[in-house]
From TrEMBL:
Part of an electron transfer system. It comes from Skermanella cutis. It comes from the Bacteria. One of its GO terms (molecular function) is monooxygenase activity. Keywords: FAD, Flavoprotein, Monooxygenase, Oxidoreductase. Pfam families: ETF-QO_FixC_C, FAD_binding_3. Belongs to the ETF-QO/FixC family. Residues 368-433 form the FixC-like C-terminal domain. This is Protein FixC.
Length: 433
């Protein structure tokens, strides 16, 4: 006989683990299927974990979760050829008993989270690939087929948390092909380094940490950002751009990363580190307009598979964990009410998303992806102009400040024209309104 579950969760990343854990804690019979050797085995990169989203799932996670550093400072830099101009926010209030953000090593964190899923009572099967959804004559999903012998498993609902490629949904014609302009390819390295050097270079102590987000010349005029995170004994450095831009420009991702590491501003920060890990990772960047149908008869999609990523604020893990929790809570509520998991009832999941910060934030920035993709000057011209303006203004010579201001204004007008400057200002206002 084919075994039957209340829910099958495909994938064991943040969204899949959140869904499986919440379902198991709610008393449902849950099967979680992961194609890796273990949860996190395919992830070597560092990441940012947002405490509020996880705390709503596991309130006491700080007791034993493998956390790296809690973030006390956020820096945003626009890089020129050999300089940067930027801003930062640092607050001692982030040194609380319940810090707001942490850096994590995904391989360690995902493994810990999945152990919590097992402890909650879910059955977790790894090294298994789900090849397709099982659907009846009316199109309702009633299970999955895996690459194992006799690998058919049934469930009331299948929750797909299989990443940005969303292979299951695409094979079942529940989602279209992923457009290259709706995803970014990020390449990352972890550099192991003496913690004393981290404290010295970033002016932190204990488990305090710093995050640096960067734009500018290092992306080669493409739409993208770079980042540098402090971990306990390592630094995570990486850069990502839209796949469509990589294709158009013909620039290799690893070349961008090498240029970033050798930038005069960045090189001193990572000097003395030893590269231990390298990875590439796809990130959904389409925003609100790229979010597909998130539920139907017997199925839901969560996390990256549902394109839930806030590119404006570089938030992903909190959206992933929240969507996984919402999907699980939806099924738990329907079970208690004796309602079937058909599309009309599972629409409660979409309602939860729409009423939360997840979709409200994505809707706020719904125009940002299109505007950024059509406006490469935000990633090339303006970082150049702003760095040049700062260099001119802060160079003390025989030129008076009024003349310097006029020179700066002329440089902007020459590079973008008055009409272009006004148009760009309008685009930014439209993107961030």
């Amino acid at each position: 006989m084919v075994e039957k579950f209340d829910a099958i969760v495909v994938g064991a990343g943040p969204s899949g683990n959140s869904a499986a854990y919440t379902l198991a804690k709610g008393g449902l019979k849950v099967l979680q299927i992961e194609r890796g050797e273990y949860s996190g085995s395919k992830n070597v990169q560092g990441a940012i974990m947002y405490a509020d989203a996880l705390e709503r799932i596991i309130p006491d996670f700080r007791d034993d979760a493998p956390l790296e550093r809690h973030i006390i400072e956020q820096r945003i830099w626009l890089l020129g050829d050999d300089s940067y101009i930027g801003t930062n926010y640092r607050s001692d209030s982030f040194n609380s008993e319940r810090p707001n953000r942490y850096t994590i090593i995904r391989a360690q964190f995902d493994k810990w989270f999945n152990e919590k899923v097992r402890e909650a009572g879910a059955l977790v099967i790894c090294e298994t690939t789900v090849t397709e959804l099982l659907r009846d004559a009316n199109g309702k999903v009633y299970g999955v087929r895996t690459d194992r012998e006799n690998g058919e498993v049934h469930a009331d609902v299948v929750i797909m948390a299989d990443g940005v490629n969303a292979l299951l949904a695409r094979r079942a014609d529940l989602q279209p092909e992923l457009p290259p302009e709706n995803a970014a390819l990020a390449v990352k390295e972890i550099h192991f380094i003496d913690p004393a050097l981290i404290e010295q270079r970033f002016q932190v102590k204990g488990d305090e940490g710093v995050v640096i987000e960067m734009m500018g010349k290092v992306t080669g005029g493409m739409v993208g950002t770079a980042f540098l995170y402090t971990n306990k004994e390592s630094l995570t450095i990486g850069i990502g751009c839209l796949i469509s831009d990589f294709k158009e420009k013909g620039i290799a991702p690893y070349k961008l990363l090498e240029d970033l590491k050798n930038h005069p501003v960045i090189k001193p920060l990572i000097q003395g580190g030893e590269v231990k890990e390298y990875a590439g990772h796809l990130i959904p960047e389409g925003g609100y307009k790229a979010v597909p149908q998130v539920c139907g008869d017997g199925w839901m999609v969560v996390g990256d598979a549902a394109h839930l990523n806030n590119a404006a604020h570089r938030e992903g893990s909190n959206l992933a964990m929240t969507s996984g929790r919402f999907a699980a809570e939806t099924l738990i509520e329907l079970k208690k009410q004796g309602k079937a998991p058909v599309a009309a009832n599972l629409a409660l999941y979409k309602k939860k998303l729409d009423e939360s910060f997840v979709m409200k934030d994505l809707k706020k920035y719904k125009n940002l992806p299109e505007i950024m993709h059509m406006s490469p000057q935000f990633f090339s011209a303006y970082p150049d102009l702003l760095n040049g303006a700062a260099h001119n203004l802060f160079t003390v010579d025989n030129v008076d400040k009024k003349t310097k201001e006029n020179q700066i204004l002329k440089s902007f007008a020459k590079r973008r024209s008055l009409f272009g400057l006004v148009g760009d200002a309008f685009k930014l206002a439209r993107a961030f309104r």
